[in-house]
Amino acid sequence: MTRRRATILLHWLVLVLLLLVLTSGRETALFTAAFGLSGLAMGALALAFGLMNGPGPKLTGPFRQAHPWLNRAMYLLLVWTSLSTLALSFGAHLPGPDTHALLVALVAATALHALFNLWRHMALMDGALRRITPRSLHGML
To answer: Tens digit of pLDDT for each residue in 45-69?
Structure first.
């Protein structure tokens, strides 16, 4: 599996698992473990190989400068939430916000991330959504 395919798969898998963990109330050990491991795998890919997509040529000004830092912040939040979720599964607590607060913060950050990329794709027409969706969906974009 290529890095691109692994990143796309993990990207959408983490989103689905995040929503399942929140809606199940963290009571389903399978969803909790899968979310934690998927989030850590996504963070490990980013740490090992760097961020996959840059800001693109049509993104300018402060958005262009903030883009890599906001992506890094998303990855840090994802990894911290994944670690906290896994620790809670084993009965431990990490310092800082509780796991539920981290999960809610990650959903909020994910919503902003999605809106920003929809804006990029629709207003700037830079193909932002094509970069992170499977090729089978490109015809709809």
So the answer is: 999 998 877 788 888 899 889 999 9
